[in-house]
Amino acid sequence: MNKIDKFFTKDVEQFSKLYFNHLKETFDKIDVSEIKNFVDTLLSARERGATIFFMGNGGSAATASHFANDLSFGVNEYKKPFRVVSITDNASVLTALGNDYGYDDIFIRQLRVYGKKDDVVVGVSASGNSKNLVNAFKYSSSVGIKTVALIAFDGGKMKEISDQYLHIPTGDKEYGPAEDLHIIIDHLIANYLMRLLKL
Questions:
Q1: Total domain count for the chain?
Q2: Residue 96 exposure: Cα atoms within 13 Å on the Cβ side
Q3: CB 3.0 to 4.6 Å from 124: which of 29, 60, 112, 129, for a disulfide?
Q4: Is 12 exposed, middle or buried (0-12, 13-18, 19+ CB in 10 A)?
Q5: Chain segment 126-167, per-residue pLDDT in tens
């Protein structure tokens, strides 16, 4: 049983307070050095003109899209932009690849076409165990694409095989807090980079 199940109450006001408190407690457990490392990776990719690919499933696919938007355009840097693409966004590509080759290959096959050595791929996942993300990480490592896992729960397989990770230490199956904090990390980083690049 995760913490949300334990503190659930029919009183929505009380539940709201407990949920917010749980988010605060989880915030305090985040290793901010992992945020620094992630930002350094993004800045390094920008300097060398590398592409940064984001990918995820379900709510994490939405986070991947949101990250790509915020870094490519929200940072508002056009002289030397962050080249960021979410490979979750093209429904025709995803359904064609899923239909023809299976869902486990929807990201690896895109990276085989678009990715190149020294690019970066960021996998967003609460569990860290999604097979299509794990497959894409293994492929990326084999061709010199750096892998970054944005994960929660215990980090799963992606934490083990990634070059770098940013881990949100939630309880098992706490999808809400995991995805809440992933999107806050997006906004934190985008707001930081927007201001940093103006200096």
A1: 1
A2: 7
A3: 60
A4: exposed
A5: 999 999 999 999 999 999 999 999 999 999 999 999 999 999
